[in-house]
Every structure is written in C-alpha cells, then in structure tokens.
Amino acid sequence: QIIVRHRRKADRASIPNRNLKNLLREYARQQRQDGRVEPRVLFYLGQEYRFVDVQKALHFYERYVAVSGWGEERSHAHIAIASLYEAGCVAVPVEIAQQKAYDHFAVAAVEMPDSPDGLFGMARVAQIRGMHHDCIALTERGFAIGNTDTMLGTDPMQRLYYPHIALNFSLNALGRVEEAAASCRKGLEACPDDPGGGGVGPGVLTNNLKIYEAHLSQSPPRSQQTITLNDQEDLAKPPQAIPADSLAMFFIQTWKQI
C-alpha cells in the first residue's frame, strides 16, 4: 500500500518581505532574551532593509560593523553602505555622498586586502570626481589582486566587467585612447552582453569602443599626439590611497574586537 501525503509549500511570492519579517521576529526574540542581538542578524537586517528603508538599512549595517568580529563580512557591509551612498539612495548632498562612499569602500579595502572590491569602488568614485589618475591606479591595483575566492560569494562581473566602465572613461579623459579601447575589449571579452551599470546604459563599452577605434583610425602616430590632462586634478599630489578617516574607522573597529 502506498500512501501519498501532499503538503503544500508556502507561496513565498505572495508574502511581501517574508525574509525581513522573519528577521524582525528573531531580532525581537533576542532582544527580549538578554538584550543582545547576534551580529549576523544585524547584517541580514541591513541586507533586507536595502529594498524597503535605506535609513534603517544604514542603521543596522553600522551597528553590525561596530560589533562584528568577521573581517570579510564587515568588508561586505562597508561595500553595501558605500553602494547606497554611491547610488544616491541617501538624502545628503552629492559631495558628502561621494566622500562617504569613498571612505567606506576604502575601509572595505583595508578589511580585505586580498579582495579587489573595495579598490574598484574607490576607483568608480574617483572617476566620477574627475580624479582620473586615481581611478586608473586603483583599478590597476584591483586587477593585480585578481578574482579571488570569497566565502560570501560575489558576482565575478563586478571584477571582470564593471571596472572597465570607469577605467575606459578615465583613460580616454587623459588622452590614452588606445588603452581605453583595450579596456573596452577586455570588458566585452568578460561580458559580451555589455549590460552597463553605475549610471550608464547598456552597450556602453561597445559604443565607446567604436568611438575610440574611429578616432584612432584618423589619429596621427602616437609620437605626434598631444596628451591632455584634467586641469582640476592636482598632479603634484600622490593618488589617494586610503583616507585617514577610513583608516581611523578601521582601527577603531579592530580595537573593539580586542
């Protein structure tokens, strides 16, 4: 005799913010128990609130990085905070948002020196600010680290495709058109679909490559070209590596774990 019992699975699609609601229940339970909340609950509350309430997401991320002892996940949290500022999701002036994003990307780079993600984030902000030498230097440092393994997982296109969006713009801005074209080709080799990102639309590398190749086909030999520089960029100043504020943030967090 065969007995078949059918248990209907929960229709997750019909329960809005299901994960967030479960996390809030666990958060309340832990607070009632002894007033302390596990760091990972704070981290995942930040993850879920990104799509619902940015200010609450920032609140839980910042609580998390203050108490967590896991450097890799702290790095991910700093990148998440930086990404919210970078995308303009936080209601602060643009200059402040860019600096906040840069600082948190920098902390992420210090937290995980064998991960390129923080450096690529810093490079994007540098390109937006017109600091093209910084963008190029930071991107090259990220590429030198490579697409390393991570316990938390990452989209490989964040390391193989997206960095070329900022990089090709900065190379071209400094008159390094051949290198800008090469950057586009490398990005397209990693992701032929060319979806764009970071405020630019699909086909950005494909379209830019066509422009660069057309320019190069009509340009004089390299020895006769004049390299133009951004007048606003202080070339006497070394590239911004890790801001002092970011280092201070990192050391304070580290000290709290001792």
Overview of the structural elements:
The structure is a single chain. With 258 residues, this protein is an all-alpha fold. The protein is built from 12 helices and no strands. It has helices at 18-34, 39-49, 54-67, 71-86, 94-111, 117-128, 132-145, 157-160, 163-173, 177-190, 204-218, 244-257. Helix 2 (39-49) runs antiparallel to helix 3 (54-67). The mean pLDDT is 87.
Outline of the structure:
Helices cover 62% and strands 0% of the residues. With 258 residues, it is mostly helical.
Task: Detail the topology: elements first, then pairings.
Blueprint: H1 18-34, H2 39-49, H3 54-67, H4 71-86, H5 94-111, H6 117-128, H7 132-145, H8 157-160, H9 163-173, H10 177-190, H11 204-218, H12 244-257
Helix pairs in contact: 1-2, 2-3, 3-4, 4-5, 4-6, 5-6, 5-12, 6-7, 6-9, 7-9, 9-10, 9-11, 10-11
Question: What percent strand?
Answer: under 5%
Work out the oligomeric state of the chains in this entry.
Answer: single chain
Largest sheet: none
Number of strands: 0
Note the total helix count: 12
Which consecutive residue ranges, at least 5 long each, have pLDDT under 50?
Answer: none
Secondary-structure content class: mainly alpha
Q: Per the principal axes of the C-alpha atoms, what is the gross shape?
A: globular
- Average pLDDT confidence is 87
Radius of gyration: 22 Å
H-E string = HHHHHHHHHHHH
Give the proportion of residues in helices.
Answer: 55-70%
Distance between the termini: 63 Å
